[in-house]
Design goal:
Number of helices: 16
Shape: globular
Strand order of the largest sheet: 2-1-13-12-11-10-9
Number of strands: 13
Oligomer: single chain
Helix content: 40-55%
Length: about 350
């Protein structure tokens, strides 16, 4: 890989990570400006990606993205990657939903289109100008451009209950759960039935069988199907509601995949942790405490608990000094850190400092 000369060595560490083994240090995805050249950061937001996919094309952005990759040092297990997305509610858009975006805003949002849950015909919209087919065409085009430069991220699947919420409306979904739970389950079953086709479309279009799978996070799987699994709406559910309205669908997706990571977002989602930890095939958890809460380093007991039941951790919010100081408090075979350093010297020093 042009911008990751030690890609083969990184693959060795990723294989060890998934097997919960350690070679000579915990897995670390560290990036920095390259030594002795100007650094060109580039923030490709979901909104920029949306307009590039739906209206503008990618001609303006690809040289800037390549300039960014050329000036970035990808150390340890870090891999150049490209997030081609329509925004967090793209899954709902594939099923007939509508997205809106404003240039300059960081992300897109959905406009509810289901007035009720009665008489739904849940299916992927395959029209030529629909969101699904448009994004597929972009994936195929960019898979050619990206060959030997970077990997295309697998989609950020806000499927099952998150997709229902986007199609129906959050408040209405809450009312539906209370007033007509059977209709909610029926709709969720219909949405879940579309997951394999959607996954396989982008797995194929992104050449992931040949190049490997990577999500919007840094975790890479050389062979097989990988995605990040999540349900942001779970923060509004109690533990018993979770067992009916989202956990079965999370487990279905995890069973479909070869490897998986669950994005656990917000203190209110912790009510579901015990059930998530009981999913045998789940490999890894990213704990995101949420806005206003202490960062994950302040939740060491929780991090250790996750590891003790055999799950790995993706830790994304520690500073280089915090990684250097506290990494030994966790099982090095069941953690991957991701961090950006101010210089290549600092990044190389961090890799050395966490050797066992």
């Amino acid at each position: 890989m042009i911008y990751k000369q030690d890609f083969e060595n990184a693959k060795l560490h990723w294989r060890a990570f998934w097997e919960k083994e350690v070679i000579d240090r915990p897995a670390l995805c560290v990036t920095s400006p390259k030594r002795d050249r100007p650094y060109h950061p580039y923030n490709l937001t979901p909104t920029i990606s949306y307009f590039a996919c739906m209206q503008d094309g990618w001609t303006e952005h690809l040289p800037l993205l390549e300039q960014h990759m050329e000036s970035t040092w990808y150390g340890g297990e870090a891999i150049p990657q490209l997030d081609v997305t329509l925004g967090p509610d793209e899954y709902a858009a594939f099923l007939g939903g509508r997205l809106e975006a404003i240039r300059g805003n960081p992300t897109t949002w959905s406009v509810p289109v289901w007035n009720s849950l009665e008489g739904l015909n849940i299916a992927i919209d395959h029209t030529e100008d629909g969101y699904f087919e448009r994004l597929r065409r972009v994936f195929r085009e960019l898979s050619v451009w990206s060959e030997n430069k970077c990997l295309l991220n697998m989609l950020d699947f806000h499927s099952h209950l998150d997709a229902l919420c986007a199609l129906r409306d959050p408040a209405e979904t809450c009312m539906d759960i209370m007033d007509d739970p059977d209709a909610v389950v029926q709709a969720l079953n219909g949405i879940a039935a579309t997951y394999p086709e959607i996954f396989e479309a982008f797995y194929t279009d992104g050449c992931m069988e040949k190049r490997g799978s990577i999500g919007w996070g840094p975790t890479y799987l050389e062979k097989g199907r990988f995605a990040i699994v999540s349900c942001d709406f779970s923060c509004l559910l109690g533990a018993e509601q979770g067992k009916k309205f989202f956990l079965p669908y999370v487990e279905q997706e995890i069973d479909y995949l070869d490897r998986s990571l669950y994005h656990l977002d917000g203190k209110d989602a912790l009510v579901h942790l015990e059930h998530l930890l009981a999913i045998e095939k789940l490999d890894c958890i990213q704990w995101v405490p949420g806005a206003g809460a202490p960062r994950s380093i302040e939740w060491m007991d929780l991090l250790k608990k996750i590891q003790q039941v055999g799950k790995s951790l993706w830790i994304f919010d520690w500073t280089p000094d915090e990684i250097r100081t506290h990494f030994r408090e966790l099982d090095p075979a069941k953690v991957v850190f991701s961090v950006h350093c101010d210089s290549q010297d600092d990044a190389e020093r961090l890799l050395e400092d966490i050797r066992l």
